[in-house]
Every structure is written in C-alpha cells, then in structure tokens.
Request: fold
Amino acid sequence: MDKSHFRILEQGCEIWNSWRANNLNQYVDLSGCQLSRRDLAMFNLKNVNLSRADLTKANILGANLEGAVLTEANLSQAILPKDTLIGVTLNGVDLSSVDLSGAVLKGAKLVQANLKQANLEGADLTDANLVEASAIDTNFSNAILTGACIENWRISRQTTLDDVICDYIYLKASKQNDVIRFIERRPSNLGTTFSSGSFARLILQTAETVDLIFEDGIDWQAFFYSFQELRSQYADQDLSIQAIEKKRGGAFVVRLEVSSEANKSEIESCAHELYETKRLLSEAQGKIKVYEEMMEVVTTLAKRPMTETINQTFNAQVGNAAGVNKGSMNAHIGKNADDVMKLITALQQIAQSFPNDQKELVEGYIEDLSNDFSQSIKPSSSAVKRRIIALWGVAIAVAGSIATATDFANNVLELSNKLEIPTEAIQPQLEEFSRLRPDFEWSS
Reply:
C-alpha cells in the first residue's frame, strides 16, 4: 500500500477523482487497505491495486472498477457496481451470495473465485477467466459465457444454466511468458458454435464427474486396484464409476462420479498417479529373473572393499541390454555409484524372502535400472523415478505380511536419496507405507 494514495482517498471523492484525472498514468496501490463500510460510490478506481483490501460492506456503487485488481479482497456484503467491472481481477475473491445480476464482467479474472449461490443472472462474462472458480448453486440464467474459460470450475446440478448464451467455451488456460491464453475450444471447429441448449447439456453432464483419459489403452487390473485405493483415500467423496467409453485409436475414458464439493483436479491427478504405480507393478509380472551371471557379478562387487578400483565390464546380458559396469555408473551417478551398487544388492538379498511374484518384480525393476544406467539415462530421469516408485509398490504390497518389508523400504528410501530423487516424487508411497508399517520412520 502507498500511504500517500490512501491519504488522498480519505479526502473524498471529488479530490480523489481530480487527482486521478491529473495522474492518468500513475500506478495506484491501495493493496491491503482497510476500507470496510466506506462510501466509495462514484470513485474512479480504474486499474487500482486493491488486492487483499478489506471492502466489507463498502458502498462501491457507481465506482469505476474497470481493470482494478481485487485479488483476495474481502467483498463480503459490499454493494458493487455492475456496469464497470470490465477486465476486473477478482482472483480468489469470496463473492458467495452476492447479487451480480446484469453485471458487465467482460474479460474479468475470476480464478478460484467463490461464486457459490451468487446471482449472475443476465451477467456478461464474455472471455472471463473462470479457472477453478466455485460456481456451486450459482444462477447463470441468461448470462453470456461466450469465450470464457472454465477449466476445473466446480458446479453442481443446482447450478442454473437456463437460457445461457454461449457460442463457444474454452476448457483449459495456458500460461506462456506471463500471458494467459485459453485453449481447447468447444466446439473444437472454429467455424461452429453451440446449438441452443447444447452448452448447458454438456456442462451439466460433467457437473459432478471426473473424466480419466487413457490415451494408450488401459490395464484393467491396474485400474481397478488403483480405483479401490482412490476410493479409500477419498472415502468422504463416495466415488463411483459412471461410464466407460472406448475412443478411436484404443483410448479409453473412464468417467467417475464425485460430489459437487470435490476438488476434481486433485482427484484426477491422484487417480492417474495411483494407476501408473499399479500399472508398473502389473507390467513387471512375468519378467524373467536376472541372469545368474549378473547376480554373481553384483554380489562379488558388493563384497569387495569400496576403495578398490573396479574395472570389470559386465558382459552378462540383462534382458536385451548390457549390464552396468562401475565406470558407467560413476559416469552417470558419480560418487554415489558404490553406495548404489550396495543398496541394489541389499534389495535383491532382502527380496529373497518375498513371495515369488514380488521377488521377481524386484529383480525385474533392478534389471530395468541396470538397463537405464547402461544406456546413459540420468538418475533424475522420469524412467528411473518410475523404477523407484515401482519398488515402493512392492514394499507396500508386502508390508502387511513380510517382516523384512521395513528393511526393504529403508533401502529403497536410501537408494532414492543416493539417486537424488526428491521426496515429493515418492511422497504418496512413503505415506502409504508409513500407514501400513508404523515402525517405518522417515522425515517429511
């Protein structure tokens, strides 16, 4: 906040508007100001920064708010103008139950705004940014939504969309060089528009659903296992499968039914993460064991003093890829190569006490890691992260039945650290294993 600007504001509408007229290009900062119950009617607040300002019960009727920034401002019970809100920034603002019927909100920024039960009947929201806005039980009757972006907005079956005017809509927003651009137009063909009532039907169909898209087909066993885990994590949401649709090219869309209050973006992200973990476990089923020659070489290396220079080349084949030699590991892992080799050997040894399926999975993932390093794939790559997540999947699978599961998990965690994989990448697996095995301790 610029205190000098606030002092001018306190002198009243006439002085303020005169000062603004004489300083057209000056940036005006009233961010965080205490303006509750103030009479700001007819004030020229065009392009003024009012972010985080307290405007509770303020009278802003007739004020020019065009282009004003009201991010996270408190507008509870404020009396707002309806014809001068073009381009206004209302990101994160609580506008629940506010009457904005007939308001001109062309190009308004309403990202994460709370519009619950607000009255936007007849409002002009052309080109408005409604990304992640909450529009539960909101009245949009006769409103104009042409060109608006509704990515991850939340509506309910009680959201009113009667006679909405909408030629086309955008489903996503993309930020490039600090410029927000709307993408994924619907209807997708530029020359077409929604027919009467089709927009409302499309939107209400997805009001309480999450679409999971699997472009490259779907592993049904992995999906149903991951879905059960998803339901467990979101037990309060009563998730269910509404429909399964096969698309051209082998893609599938699984539509989940969720509550109107659900964070659909979060559920979608979690669902895909759980599926990928289960898919990796499923994918490794039936992989051949690592050849004995490879096992013998790894065991021999682990028994040697770490100060010894190892120049032996692994000639053994692992799958279709050559094994990793010490020099290769040093090149791609650096000073941690010896520790990585020891941890890999320890994981193999502990896995000998696992059921055959899980033991073969561990050997398969270690084979994959060996292939990665032999092919000069960096430890920070997504492929290596997937192997580590898959090893966590094995640890979780045996957590309830194998006594050495915690030792196995500790070694996987240390291996993650040696490969410099950030904790955030394996956070869900850490939390799930900790839930199953309270004796497992890690620092979050």
